[in-house]
Every structure is written in C-alpha cells, then in structure tokens.
Amino acid sequence: MNKKRLNFVILLVFLFSVQFMYAQWQAASTGFPVDNMQSITAIINSGNNLFASTAGLGVFMSTDDGANWSPVNNGLVISSVKCLALIGNRIFAGTSDSSIFISTNSGANWFVSGNGLDNADVRTIFVNGNDIYLGSFGNGAYKSTDNGMNWMHIDSLDYGYFLSFAKVGNNLFAGTYNSSSGDIYISSDNGMNWILTNASWADTTVLSLAGHGNNIYAGTDGGGILYSTNNGNNWTIINNGLRGLSVECIIFYGTYIIAGTEDGVYFSSNNGTNWYEISQGLTDTYIHTLLIKGTTIYAGSNSGGIFKANLSAFGIMAVNDLTDADNISMFPNPVNDKLFVSYSSGLASIYSIIIINNLGVPVIEKNNIPVSNNSVEINTSGLATGVYFCTIRSGNNTQTKKFVIIR
Known about the structure:
This protein is mostly beta strands. The protein contains one helix and 35 strands. It starts with a helix and ends with a strand.
C-alpha cells in the first residue's frame, strides 16, 4: 500500500470515528454487574460526583463523569431504591420498604429517616426550596420541612398513589395513579389541600411531571405528553413525532424539552409541537431517567445500564453556544429531506450558500444565487443525522446559522 493510499485510509478511519463518537450514545456502566443488571431508577449530580439508584442493587457512585461506577451502600440496608434527591450535601434515597435513607458524606454512609412515614412505598421525592415532598404508592403524599428528619401526611384524597410532583409559580402539581385512570391534582398551599385539575383526558397513569416557565408538562403511561399553560384548566396533547407514548421522565435544557420513554429518547425545540428521536446507540431504549451535567446527557435504562452522549451530537445547543445570524431563517429545523433558507438583509447582488458538517467539511454548495431569490430550497436527503452549519457568503460578508438533520 503506497503512502498516499495509506494516508487516505487513515483519514477515512478518523472521519468515521469522529462521526461515530458524536452521533451516538455510549455505554457508561463500567462497575455495574453485567450478569445482574438492574433498572436504573434515578441519576443525580452532587458536586463532581454522579449517583445512580437501582431497583435491586442499591446506589452507585461515579467520580469520573460516568466512566466508572462503584457501589456506595454502607448502611443502606434496602437494595430496591426507587428515587434520589439532593439538598445541599444531603442525598435522599427513597426505597420500597417504607424508608428514606440519607447520606451527608457522598454516599460513604447512610442512615434511615422515616419518622412519620406509615408503610410508604416511596416512588418519588421532590425538592422545592427547604420543603421536601414524598410520593408513595398507596399511602399518599408526605412533606418534610426539617431536611427529612420528620414527615407529615399531607393529602386528603380518596386514594394515595403519587408518582410525580412539579412546581409552577405558587402551585404544586401531583401526578397520580389508580386502577382505572390517572389524575393530576393541584395545591396552592404547599400540599395541604388538593383539587383536581381539568384533566378529563387522563385515562392512564401520570408517570412524570415537569414545570418550565408558566407551563406544566405531563408524561403518561401510554398517552404520551400533554401540557397546560393555565395551571391545568386546559390541556393539549403534543405527541407529533413521539413514538414512545409511555413517558417516564421530562427534563429541560434551555428552550429544549427532552423526554425519556419506553421507546427511546426524544427532544423538542418548539415547546413540544414536534418531537425528534435521538436514540442512536442505545442498546436498551426503555429509559427511566435522564440527567444533564454540563453538555453531557445521561440516560438510565431498564436493563441496559447507563448511557451518555454529548448534547451537541443531536443538535441540542446551549444558548451561549449558538452563533446564529439573526437575518437568516431556516425551516424546518431540525430537518429531514428539504431545508428552506431565506434572508432578510445584508446581501449584495449575488450570494452563495454553503452547508458544512460538524467536521468543518463543505457538503453542499450553491453559488451565484441572484439577490432577488431570497428563499432557497436545499436538498438534504443525502446527508446523515448530525449538526450542520449553513453559511451565506455575499462579497466580504459571511453569516452562519446552525441546524440539525434528524433521520
């Protein structure tokens, strides 16, 4: 093999490796027992450490951003941990055996704290300021105002299956389950009294709730995602593009909404109007929990352990990462086969449009476009999923806008 051909092969290998690295989720479960992998029920970040709870192996910790994990279960005598929460340096672990465990030293030791809990199968812990809310499966909701040392029963509903909480403004929302349906309740007095929202749609369990601005989002078991802009008085179904309709978790990153479902991970950049799947590389697409640390997203699965990816690989960018020109508009974004590019000002008599991939390589170029043509159709059907940049050049003026292709 001559030197020129060898260099070409090396270049191809490099480009393929970089594309693979940025385009897919990577397994991040080293340290978990591969022959006894349990469901990952929660992942939280405390300082430089990550903590993950499991359905049968207790809690694991990583000090290197998920590259390696080790069990931290000294004093945690219940191995089925359903949820985790954090206040300051206090980590809370909710278990299926009527117990809350607390660690104040990064999981090195745990002590039990369940004074006031009445046989509560703990399913969710929600922290709001100094208040901690606990939802149980069958025994209602509880609240603690003293860092979890004591708990008081706070719901007065006919049944007490609480699976999720969220706060929007002064209103606390609770997602519930019963044998035939699920409901969303609202409390304006920090959980002391509850009323049913106008959720006549709710014929299924409410698995997850999340508040963002003035909006409340609800993930259901089989009904997809719904949201309300008026404190639950009205709800809208937002499932366009969402194949996974059992939504275990909903998180936010700037203006993006990201959902973990029984059929992969999805994101929306327009308040849920459209959803795009980002499950490439997941060997287990049943996702129970999501966490974002910096620009890395972590996903806890049902039986495949933990996965992680860089958000930019999916075109999910922080606001301060964007280099968009205000006078360039693109539709749709994300795009599949056809991208429409238009401008509002700043161009000379002719201009060029260049599409560049995330390696800096031009992949599409259109030249000598007359300025009278201020809307151009770009065929993107031959491009792979990933982040791209659209650059418009006119004389000495160059402007760039970022977009993403999703297959």
